[in-house]
Amino acid sequence: MMPAIRVLAIFTACALVTACGGGDSGGGATSGADPVGGGTEPVTDAGSDNNSGSDVDIGGDEPVVLADLPSPPLTEAPSANDEPIALAQEFHTITDFPLVGEPSPRVPVSVVSQFSEADFAAGLPPAVVSVPDGVDPALNGAPFFEGLQNVRVNAGDVVEIRYAPRDPEGELPGQFAQELPPGATFDDNFDGTRTLRWQTFQADVGITAFTAVAIDPAVSSYRSSQTLLIAVDESVDPANVVNATPSIRAVDNYTVRVGDPVVILLDGQDRNGTIPSIELVNPPAGATLTPDYRDEGLSWLRLVPEFVGTLTIDVLTRDALDSSITGLDRITLFVKPASEFERSGARLRDAAANGRVLFGSALSPVFYLQADGGLYESFADSEFALMTPESSMKWDAINPLPGLFEWADMDNLMRFAEQHSMAVRGHPLVWHRSLPSWVEETAVEDRIVHMREFITRVMNRYADRVDIWDVVNEPLNDTSGEMRQSLWFETLGEQYIDIAFAQARELDPAATLVLNEFDVGFAGPKFDGLLQLVDRLLARDVSVDAVGFQMHVFSSFNQFDELAANMAAIAERGLDIHITELDVALVAGASDATQANVYARVIETCQEQPQCTVLQTWGFTDRYSFRTVTEPLYLNRDFATKPAYEAMQQTLSGN
Ligand code: XIL
Asked: Which residues line ligand 1 (CB under 6 A)?
């Protein structure tokens, strides 16, 4: 077999220096629905004939009146084809009631490269330079990479590109790589340069972008990000391409409880672009391997660990083209006795029940498909009186493509909550993030109708089972009190909020409707802006019942008086306060005791405010936190309680 060809690319180029702007991700919202929920009032906003939200007749302080939604809707409504089907027990960990799964094949993750041949031909993309406050590029030139150019190879070639960072002032910049291509390395040459080395295969055919960052020697936040495009063409002779060893996608090490069902998704991968077969080597007694019902490349390992200890499971993958080529991966489970997860004292929901604060948590998407789903379930179903879907109700989860609705996970969470007498918070109806890529392409003039249709579809499915709705999430800029210039704001300014609440109120007259925001638990321009927004909404009779304080804080948080004052300002306006997403990230060197104290003080501040009626954490185990690196929750990654758990027990019970 011919050796792979080495392609050594060292070119000369210079980067364009461009100050990179801030700005927020924006995001649009869309979905179609049956025209249910159209108002019966006279048309004043979107006329049904033109689907436009742009002629909304909202003057100064006039309350909005909703028009009928268009018929047919802007995008296809949910149908019987979207209805979930029974999920076989081989695929999940919950044993006491059947779960449902999606009926359709998995939504293809876009495999189209974001870069085209035209992009490649246009040459090296300009560097993006981040210029921090106080730096004048005229005096301190931006760092850059010397000698780079887009690279074209054939599958099977090894790409080698040397990265030599330079600085106009002559000092040597630092550098690091962002996400590496699969199997690539970014090797230190110990002379201030690094080399990207990448053995390409058939699976890499297309255009891959690789970005390295040069760091100014004087100001570390002054950086230049340089993307380079690597075009991998089909091999002239596939027989020349070395055949890679297959494997499974990496599986985390899990702590599980003896006797709990464990499921693990095995995702076979082969860089030659084929799907390897998967076999268990000496599997534990009773272990099964079941092909996924939606995707032939996936298999589900299911077992029930019967003994305490470290359980290893070896998985052999076999090349689809040459069965003599195999890969071996090892899965490790730490099997603990049930006694290690028993908790003394009151369950948090029972402790809270002594008072008037409803206590709950966000729950992870498809937690029942994780190896430790048994532990997750047993904690959640005993500790919480309120459940919020962390992400299962978001646009990209519910409606990933026009006309395609994926209700299964949200249906499962809803039934889980009902089975354990938990109230449910719908989150979020309107947000600028977690939107499918097709949503942001909606025309501005259609967007309000899209928004109303989505709200209608979600609330039609769940309204009689949801007690609280986060109707609009994060309407303000990250750090100021200004309105976020989101895709929503682009339509009608802040009046999108009026319409969203009017639509939600029309669909669920009895629910608690919430405006939810982060970084408003202390004094500052953001809370000032929130208060002004609330006053404007109330002046327009917008049907807000409560304001959500997310409270994603740090262990250094100590502005409890300011939190109390901000809550009081909201209460003075006749609105309730919900703590909606509490977690306490550990700052460097902070102790678990410090973290516990912040949890306790936030709970006390809520208890002291009669109109603070709900307190929710954003998850409960560090393993599944979106801030996981800062260990912000009250169980560690292995479901062991931290001091914050005991502190919450005591504080919630009013001790
Ligand atoms: C976060 C989830 O925790 C992440 O897993 C997801 O990737 C992005 O969204 N404010 C909100 C929540 O209102 O919906 C966000 O949840 C966290 C910030």
From this structure: 390-391, 434, 473, 518, 550, 581, 626
